Predict the 3D structure of the following.
Amino acid sequence: MKLLLTILLSFTFLFSSAQGSYDVVVYGGTPGGVIAAVAAAREGSKVLLIEQTRHVGGMNTSGIGTAESEHMIEETISGLPLEFYSRMSQFYGKPKTEFYFESHVAEKTFNDLLTEAKVKVIYENFVQTVKKDGAKIRTISLTNGEEVSANVFIDATYEGDLMAKAGVSYTYGRESKAQYGESYAGVRFMDEPIDASPYDDSGKLLPGFVEKSTLTEGQADNRVMNYNFRVMMSSNADRVAFPKPEHYDVNRYVLLSRLLKNKPETQFRDIIDMYSWTYPKGKFETNNKQKSVISLGHFGGNVEYPDADYQKRQVIYDDHKNWTLGLLYFLANDPSVPQKLHDEVNQYGFTADEFKDNGNFPYYLYIREGRRMKGALIQTQRDILEDRKKPDAICLGSHWIDSHHVQRVAVSKTQFVNEGRIWHATTEPYEFSYRTITPKATECSNLLVPGCLSVSHVAFCSARVECTWMQLGNSAGIAAAMASKQKKDVQQLNVSELQGRLKEKGVIISIDHQIWNGGKDVHK
């Protein structure tokens, strides 16, 4: 009875009305948002977290079960994010911190952190309007009709909607090579052509393709990396068969039909990347396969997403979901699929123990890239590879510069290329300036943006992984609590004082830290 009462009290606390005033309001229950909320609450702030779906955790509870440590310096993960990974490792009985986990375990860990920190959470709500007094946000109104005020707000979403509605300058898409002198910027043709016709039988360009004649190497555009769902698959007996989508159109998969006709030996893993990591036997994380003729990435389907309203975004989400379910259903059922591939695909299905209230399908669409703030400082490729130190550093980044393809380009009647890939290995960490998460003081004085931060497209391709967003969220949460307590604009915080507090909380902010200079491994 005592345990039941505790659960009911926690449930009431987490799901009660958001109406009222807070020290810190975090918009977006992404991994970075959860960490920001908990970090601020641990500093003594009264915190509200507003999540747009029914579940916190963003992509870490929607199919990404890694900290991406295989493509970064894992020792740069510190503070509260490291605690998050350590807690999951303890759940699995691991002797030291590891960076692989299941989505439902990540969600439990996020919820444990929020409950312990007494963070109030409301779900399925979006910001409607923002009321400001000069540069200061006074209140935000939500889709449930409630109005919320706070001393400091944090936008931790993948889209940056609170930032945009607050009148903060932003951009999206790709800068040209010339704009910041970035060798990896703009349109990029680095991959070999793929032998598959990008035209239909009447000679019309297939949906999602553009003509190469319209593009120039290194030019700017408003396109972002392709999106896909990170579905979880299983080969175990309790797997859930791939369902037929509500709007199934076999014509969407003409490229796949042509591929299988020309290459009947094609295997499932030639189409979809599958990772087993350290998951239980028979369980797999999936991803878009970069060089495949066709895969989970829905090219062209996300062009309008970054600046779309909520209704249009839902249409785009549903379209991506139908694309994904349709692709899997085609492979499992279409009579044109070679028998060997048909049999192989039907050895898999959705995992029965993930996303149970959503048809075993992920909650979040993988928004690899949305808006990016245009703050007082915009970090670029140079800040990752050359000028890696910052006087107002608040955390570290080290992930490779990694852009998935942006668009499909017809190069002839029989070939196309996937365009936009960047894959540059970083060998040393770099520092994030506090100014990358603070808007211009004239635009908004009480908002921090650790998600859609102030960086170029190239720099964003390194920053855009969940473990780095959690690092930025941790620092943003502590900064927000400090600004609230001191009644200061976020731009007026004493950076040295902030850096001191970050260090006290175990955050590594300097590339000169002893960990990669022969020091003790903090993860053991």
Q: What stands out?
A: The CA atoms of residues 179 and 185 lie 9 Å apart. The mean pLDDT is 94. The two ends are 39 Å apart (CA to CA).
